[in-house]
Design goal:
Strand content: 15-25%
Largest sheet: 6 strands, mixed
Strand order of the largest sheet: 3-1-2-4-5-6
Mean pLDDT: 84
Number of strands: 6
Number of helices: 5
Length: about 160
């Protein structure tokens, strides 16, 4: 599955870099998965956080780079810790043990292929939220059918021009 990163077309930029050879895409990512923070989070939409909170995983980097981003330190700089598949599953399980309502993947788009690889072997016992800026290719979104329970794009831009 990760071979999709040889000519990356995960987002509509379709930058076609070979992330498996360490090339950096428009999103600022190569083939390493970086997560800045994972924690219990009560400040998402109330219907997502609920009483127990959301098990939020903040990925480093983003495909958008919005000037008004509330997570710009995470989304614009290559900070965070490199995670393996095993590390990621462990993080999910730690959050689930805390009683979270869901696993909330924040800015997951650059890591879509990694996540698909994880979720083919591992299914959390709570719903999965794909919390995104909404800039994914249709192909990427379709790959998550039957895996992601809630697709939650942030509505950031609009135009009256048809």
């Amino acid at each position: 599955m990760l071979e999709q990163l040889e000519k990356c077309e995960i987002c509509p930029f379709r930058c076609k870099v070979n992330r498996l050879k360490g090339q950096i895409g428009k999103c600022g990512c190569n083939d390493k998965i970086k997560i800045d923070l994972y924690s219990l989070h009560y400040f998402e939409e109330p219907c997502i956080s609920g009483e127990n909170g959301s098990g939020t995983i903040f990925f480093s980097s983003c495909v958008l780079g919005c000037v008004f981003c509330q997570n710009s330190k995470i989304s614009r700089e290559p900070i965070g810790k490199i995670f393996t598949k095993k590390d990621f599953i462990k993080a999910c399980e730690e959050l689930i043990e805390q009683g979270v309502n869901n696993i909330n993947l924040v800015s997951p788009t650059p890591y879509a292929e990694f996540l698909l690889d994880v979720f083919k072997d591992y299914r959390p016992s709570v719903p999965i939220v794909f919390n995104t800026g909404g800039y994914e290719s249709a192909e990427t979104i379709h790959k998550f059918e039957g895996i992601v329970d809630i697709y939650m794009p942030d509505f950031k831009y609009a135009s009256n021009t048809p």
